[in-house]
Design goal:
BirA Bifunctional Protein, domain 2, Rossmann fold, Translation Initiation Factor IF3, 473 residues, five-stranded mixed beta sheet, homodimer, alpha+beta
Chain lengths: 473, 473
């Protein structure tokens, strides 16, 4: 196994090395796209199963809408088509013929879905509409940045419609909270919930809410978004429903998406120089057992290892029986893959009924009695899940600044980077200037931001709120 | 609710009516494509969860390969590209530019996957390769036949590779058996497992195995296929691995797919003039409770209905509380949707603690004591699952013929249709002539076919086996 570049030396090279060598994913022959290998896809399956249960619990149902969207549909919402057109992939030829109408490979499904909503739902009794889909979307990229920026990615896109603005906003915030919960409870990734500025919002949305997570290199990752579409799309598609009094009204709509991009955040947030560090709840393999034996003890040690494995069958446990790799090689391999716990099993362990658990995150080694195995492992995995989240939260807090001085702002963005809270007058020109001068953009207005009397860090004009700034992926 | 066309009058119109009116699916604005609505998608989710568990149990892991395949890849296996080229959708324009190499929207993923296998796997230790993916594929169609023939469909495609021909064939037959199990145990659809003739096999395969199910209109549905690819693709991609002795060898490969087309078979096989009939195991809603009340008893009856619902919480139970529909309308609605059991709850039931269960398949009404509710429902649902399968099996057997007389063969294909076992010499010209004259094709050589001394039903030359013939979807 070749070495991976240390994270501290070159975070970007480290990131690619880790993904390729831990076999999470690979480049595909088409520029801008990637292959998600089984070990990486298992992370996505963990995310899907965690989120899908909560989505269904809310009463939202899964469906499937077509991959191809007629070009004219995309054009119905002006901002929407302007936002997406540079990134579209277009089918012009199919079934042996030039198409009379070009087909867009969906970059997102608002337009095709809302055309159907208009056909299906006509009365207040049909609302709320609560529909989600798990699918693939395409937004053209010339260069692949594995997981973080790829022409095709997997996601879920929820698209609900309500009679009232209030109910609509409840769904928008429920989805944002679902994403926060997934990041925090499953993936151990801390972040800030907030509102996007108008220049950063989704093309066609009234308001966009985001979960922004800080990565250890000081850059922020927009980790998922939930959009209040207001009545924009309903009007663009001329979709009305009759309310209880027989009046036609445009439904209020929202859309919310969580993608395989999140896996990039998971890797960046927790990994170290030895490779991935996976929180136990999302880890495809939670425990690996490595038997250590000489030829004459092989059978006995393997038999004992299998016993240990069966004691741990309520966890995702793997027994590494390859006989062409040394124990040292195996330790490195499973560290690289971020498996939370490693158990070494040899003659000594058999004799003493004492096992050593090696913890991936802290590298501690913990000795336990075999009789306590299941309970100890459960406790340790729970502890690790919390510790990994806490470490990321702490890293975020240590790299979060607040300043009223633009020189200091610039200095931070040149050196350690990180999150900066700063007053902004909400004029897009100041936002643009700050971006040009520091590469930092407004990440969001945190949901819990206080209203204050301040002055814009750029133009000094009055500003009511401290926005969260950072450079971003 | 508008009437549906009786199945006996026009099976094809009935089929479309049922799908649209039960809200399983709808036509999408792009010709050849469809939208799978939540009620239809829930069927696919049942199938996915049933199959995915068995796929994982076999050690096959899920992954995700890109939607776009470079044109040159598809051309590597000659038969493969010839088979698929009339049906391809092609992206020629992306990210604001004409592409230098056209991209094919995957019709199936052999070529993109095997290019990666070649990069990843080099030694006998890396085999078997056991990979599956759940995704969407595109094979252009001008006219949509909902579920049965659509330009885009959802499926799983398994792609394994082995060191030996024997192991490879074990996987091919395991997959075929997985499909049989899914059809028979989950979907209640009887069918025949067998080998495809060379003209009907998958483009690029050495052998194709199929599950063929007879529909009540006398036509067969090719319901899923498992392919022995031999070394064809390994050679086309020049993929070799080193065996235990250090010799390079081409791995043996297989691929197997099960698609949303199967839902078309489910609908056709069991439905009746009142709509869908869903086997309980796959039904998104297994039991519906319809409360029947007058204004003055409303609260009491609803409260009692909720109690009944909570007693049935281990089943997928729905309580229909809409107050703008009559009980009769509701009965029709849930019958149309194929819900296995309906429970009517009114004052009489409350007083007597006796409930009436209406069975969707046989339309029987069964009175039971409320105290026995859970046990009775469980027993009844199990019974229905078996009865629905048995009924389809019986229908298939009643419409299966064996003949050595070509005039009789033609007569059957003109009238009742169905399956016909007939000797065939395995000359593709006879197969083609039979198709032209009777519209019937060879469906398969059943796995359990005996070797006999017969003569071809068409040319009278010696023939060893009776093949299964039918007209097909």
């Amino acid at each position: 196994m070749k070495e991976i570049t240390p994270k501290s030396k070159d975070a970007s090279k480290w990131y690619t090395d880790v993904i390729l060598k831990s076999e999470l994913a690979d480049y595909s022959p088409v520029k801008g796209t990637m292959v998600i290998r089984p070990y990486g896809f298992a992370l996505w399956e963990s995310i899907q199963s965690f989120m899908d249960r909560l989505i269904k619990k809310r009463g939202v149902k899964n469906a499937y809408f077509p991959l191809f969207i007629p070009e004219r549909f995309l054009k119905k919402e002006k901002e929407h088509v302007e936002g997406f057109s540079p990134q579209l992939a277009v089918v012009t030829y199919a079934g042996g013929e030039e198409l009379t109408e070009k087909l867009i490979v969906r970059p997102t499904s608002e337009t095709i879905m809302y055309e159907m909503y208009k056909q299906w739902f006509h009365s207040w009794r049909d609302l709320p509409v609560l529909i989600n889909q798990w699918n693939n979307v395409v937004r053209w990229e010339k260069r692949t940045y594995l997981f973080l920026r790829t022409s095709e990615f997997l996601w879920q896109e929820g698209h609900c419609a309500h009679l009232t603005e209030k109910e609509n906003m409840e769904t928008v915030l429920w989805a944002l909270n679902l994403y926060k919960k997934t990041y925090q409870e499953l993936m151990g990734v801390y972040g800030i919930c907030g509102l996007k500025s108008s220049s950063e919002k989704f093309a066609g949305a009234k308001k966009t809410f985001t979960y922004e997570a800080l990565m250890p290199d000081g850059k922020a990752l927009q980790s998922s978004t939930s959009h209040d579409l207001g009545q924009n799309f309903a009007k663009a598609f001329d979709w009305t429903v009759l309310d209880q009094n027989g009046n036609a009204l445009y439904p209020y709509q929202n859309s919310w998406g969580f993608s395989t991009r999140s896996i990039g955040g998971l890797i960046l947030a927790h990994g170290d120089d030895n490779g991935l560090v996976l929180p136990p709840k999302i880890a495809p393999i939670q425990i690996v057992i490595v038997p250590i034996y000489k030829t004459e003890t092989k059978n006995k040690v393997i038999e004992y290892s299998e016993k240990i494995k069966s004691l741990l069958r309520s966890f995702r446990t793997e027994l590494d029986l390859r006989d062409d790799e040394t124990a040292g090689f195996k330790f490195n391999k499973w560290e690289l893959k971020g498996v939370p716990l490693r158990i070494e099993v040899g003659e000594k362990e058999m004799a003493g009924q004492i096992l050593t658990l090696a913890r991936r995150d802290t590298k501690e080694k913990i000795k336990i009695k075999q009789a306590d195995l299941k309970v100890s492992v459960k406790k340790l995995l729970d502890e690790m899940q919390k510790a990994i989240f806490f470490k990321h939260k702490q890293m975020t807090e240590e790299n979060t600044h607040q300043t009223e001085d633009y020189d200091e702002f610039k200095k931070i963005m040149k050196t350690t980077k990180g999150f900066i809270y700063a007053f902004w007058c909400e004029n897009p020109q100041c936002e643009e200037k700050i971006k040009q001068e520091t590469k930092a953009t407004t990440r969001c207005l945190p949901l819990d931001a206080k209203t204050e009397k301040g002055s814009c860090i750029y133009c000094q004009k009055p500003a009511k709120h401290r926005w969260l700034f950072a450079q971003s992926y």
